[in-house]
Prior knowledge:
- By secondary structure, the protein is mostly helical.
- Helices cover 69% and strands 2% of the residues.
- The chain has 15 helices and two strands.
- The radius of gyration is 22 Å and the shape is globular.
Amino acid sequence: MSDNTRKEILSSVKNDKNELSVNANRQSNIELLRIIAIVGVIILHYSNPNVGGGLRFAVPGSFNYLILCFLNAISICAVDLFYMISGYFMASSYKREIRKPLELIIQLIVFNILTLSVTSPLWGTPLTLRAFLKCFIPNNYFVIFYCVIYILSPYVNKLLDSLSFKTALRLMIILFSCFSFYATFVKMLCNIKGEQIIGLDSVGMYGSQMGYNIVNFMMMYTTGAFLRKFQIKERFKSKRMLAATFLLSTFMIMIWYFIEEKLPDIFSDLQKIEISDRACFMYSNPFVICEAISILLLFLNMDIGYKKGINTISAAVYSVYLLHGSMIILVGAWRFVQRNTLIMCAHIILSAVGIILICTMVHYLYKMMTRPIFKRLFSRKIVIVDLKQK
């Protein structure tokens, strides 16, 4: 073994030890919540008619169909929760480097290529130059929005620093009124009318896109930062109350679902509203946001200590997010959603566990191979935002 190779191995081992040391300081309760959130994302895409196909192949009105809708109602807060967690833990940082967003985008591109190379032979689709070049387009809303929010977040942190609790609370009420309550109300009007109402929404001319927008996710980041800066968890320490709030929010989402289900019976000229277009499942729906806040506060008030296994899997959550989409298709939800309910639920659980384990292994292989490259590529720190207090 050459001296250079030996140095590379020793350096890699040292970096792994440093990462474990950092992870040891991370709260495993929130790391567990991140794992639960990514399970929620997997469930959402398992049941999504256009991804896993669960709700497309389940018999409408059947018990399995209702179970999938209920799991959707529980899991719909997952993406909001990720941004909220980021806001909570980044609320006291005022410096941003270019390395973080570039690493996220590079990993997205590499995983695009990996996914194409694996799925093309499995699905019998030709591996063309055009398909390969498309892998270099980082068209993933979560990644792009996260990078934007990452860069802008120090300014949000500074703004909250300058506000008193009452003023900050008033700001949050205004944000939720304009971009959650009102936006959801407009979406409900559109569903009742049976078409998009142009120019009425507070987010965009053509609506709020079910909460898939930078305004909603910036609001989620701000919510997380607000919870941290004003120590809201100290004001809501009752785990029973927080759990009840989460369950009540889920219950209200389900009631909302049934209301939208019955709209075509009330308005005879109205077509059935697709699951993916219902106001009850908007990311900016007040009850969805309430789910995210209550479960975050619930886990913040837990103390499970440091759990190495939890932190190890949690570190791979981003890789799971990038890779799970194609794997969801491969698990074949359509073969199980019309079978016995216990079999379907077991398949959902085994699918989620299997996807997370496979993606976690891929994550650590990727990190092992790219760590030396990124170390050289970003040997010089390039700061894009620095608002550190002097």
